[in-house]
Design a protein that fits this description.
heterodimer, A: 234 residues, alpha/beta, 5-stranded parallel sheet, 4-stranded antiparallel sheet, 7 helices, B: 261 residues, 6-stranded mixed sheet
């Protein structure tokens, strides 16, 4: 069991409701009373059917969605910060230093090459530029992205290649908190194995990981504990 | 990305502008920190251009205040500045990138002259050094050195916009105002310009306030977003938060109308 003082993420009474103004103001309650913790060195997984609000929880912790109630405390070096009420500048700083997020979808940036996109994530995280490049190359290599693509902007890559660039970007930084939104969806066996290795390495490095995995095999290999999201249904 | 500088560069409070009986903008408050990019979005007539004119002191507000941290680290009320101090800001510490490059450039003066002019305004006299600096900045905005003696009248829309940026950047401004910087350009030309702006903001730690109706521009360049409608700020927050989880009916409409998502 982990000691209480290694807690990295602490949600308490978090709620999320969407109001769809373009659908006549339809109110869509998704989550209420979301309360759980994730500690350093563990990988917790959000369980529940599609539409239960799993992604919304990750997005609220990343500050990408707003919470309607409750607190989302994350440990940032020496202090605790409530993402739900932190000013935008504080959240941006947390994303550089503390919280990483890997989704399935890459937002490409015109004219920036794949290697640079991945290296920039490490640089933002405080890694020195030449080391960031080495790290980026290593990750692209382990994810089987052919070297001839490294300098090209990924906007022309296949969906699967873009997804792997995005995974490399997420793991290039060594954030103490890492949120994983189905990072292995639609990957082939070889690349899935690479991602499983990345996750294990980050666990051993003491990161707190919280993820959504639909793949049972991946879940069994990396997950320490399930969190049942249906118990937070609004 | 935003640096965590402790003190804001510019603080506006209660900014209101009436044009006779018509409202330009009402009760706008904002802060901008060094290295931070704020996008102001809204449709035509939302008050976003009025706001930019107020912030850059080209227009006097009906009420409200704007304070700015001068290079000596003292916060000053912009509308209490003397003419010489205000000119110093406009020519040196600030940049202004217009949608219509003809407003920001002298069309009959060479590209080198356009860039050099801003240096001469702050006291540079050595012709060779001015020209070298101009060449340097033209190359940074990807304009070939052999175009230095051509006038912007002979440039394409994208080149004019890049020249305008070079002209602004040559004095190392700390704050740049941009009014629809990519408006009216072809998509491929836009991409090149956006990439350039993104690089400059990151490399020089610029603060910028960008008025745009293009949400893709806001998403790519800005850290924070302000949505204006009918002269008022209706929603504000982290750019990706406002665009991915919009709260206000009007913001939801804007986001759902954006083709690129």
């Amino acid at each position: 069991m982990r000691a209480a003082d290694t807690t990295m993420i602490k949600l308490d009474g978090v709620a999320k409701t969407f109001v769809m103004h373009l659908r006549g103001g339809a109110i869509l309650p998704v989550l209420k009373d979301v309360t759980f913790e994730v500690g350093a060195g563990e990988c917790a997984v959000l369980d529940g059917p599609s539409g239960a609000g799993k992604s919304s929880i990750l997005k609220m912790i990343f500050g990408n969605y707003r919470a309607d109630a409750g607190t989302i405390m994350v440990r940032d070096a020496r202090e605790w910060v409530d993402i739900a009420s932190a000013p935008p500048r504080r959240v941006l700083h947390l994303r550089q230093a503390t919280i990483g997020y890997v989704s399935q979808f890459l937002r490409t940036i015109p004219r920036v090459g794949a290697l640079d996109i991945v290296a920039a994530s490490a640089r933002d995280n405080g890694v020195e530029p030449s080391k960031a490049k080495v790290r980026a190359a290593e990750l692209l290599d382990r994810l089987n992205i052919p070297e001839r693509l490294w300098q090209l902007p990924p906007s022309t890559f296949s969906g699967g290649e873009q997804q792997r660039i995005n995974i490399a970007r997420g793991f290039a930084a060594t954030h103490p908190i890492l949120l994983l939104d189905e990072p292995t969806a639609s990957l082939d066996r070889r690349n899935r194995a690479a991602v499983i290795d990345f996750i294990r390495e980050r666990k051993r490095g003491g990161a707190a990981l919280l993820g959504i995995f639909h793949d049972e095999d991946v879940k069994q290999q990396v997950c320490d504990r399930g969190i049942d999201v249906t118990s937070f249904r609004a | 990305m935003a640096r965590t500088a402790e003190a804001p560069l510019l603080v506006a409070q209660g900014l209101t502008k009436h044009y006779g009986p018509r409202l330009g903008c009402a009760d706008v408050a904002l802060e901008i920190y060094p290295g931070e990019v704020l996008a102001v979005v809204g449709e035509s007539g939302s008050g976003k251009s009025t706001l930019l004119s107020l912030l850059s002191t080209q227009l006097k507000p009906s009420s409200g205040s704007i304070r700015y941290r001068m290079r000596d680290d003292v916060m000053r009320d912009l509308f209490a500045l003397g003419e010489a101090e205000r000119r110093f800001l406009l020519r040196t510490d600030w940049g202004f990138v217009h949608q219509d490059a003809r407003l920001g450039l002298r069309m009959g003066v060479s590209a080198g002259g356009n860039v050099g002019e801003r240096l001469m305004a702050i006291g540079w006299r050595n012709y060779a050094r001015i020209r070298q600096e101009a060449v340097d900045w033209l190359s940074r905005v990807e304009i070939d050195a052999d175009r230095i003696d051509d006038t912007p009248a002979t440039f394409s829309g994208g080149m004019r916009q890049r020249l305008q940026i070079a002209k602004n950047m040559v004095t190392s401004p700390r704050l740049v105002f941009m009014d629809e910087p990519t408006g009216g350009l072809d998509v491929s030309v836009q991409a090149r310009l956006l990439d350039l702006l993104r690089g400059l903001v990151a490399d020089y730690g610029l603060a910028a306030i960008i008025v745009t109706h293009d949400l893709a521009v806001a998403r790519l360049l800005s850290h924070r977003l302000m949505v204006m409608r009918r002269g008022r700020v209706i929603e504000t927050g982290l750019t990706d938060q406002v665009l991915d989880d919009p709260r206000e009916p009007y913001t939801q409409l804007l986001v759902s109308s954006d083709l690129r998502g």
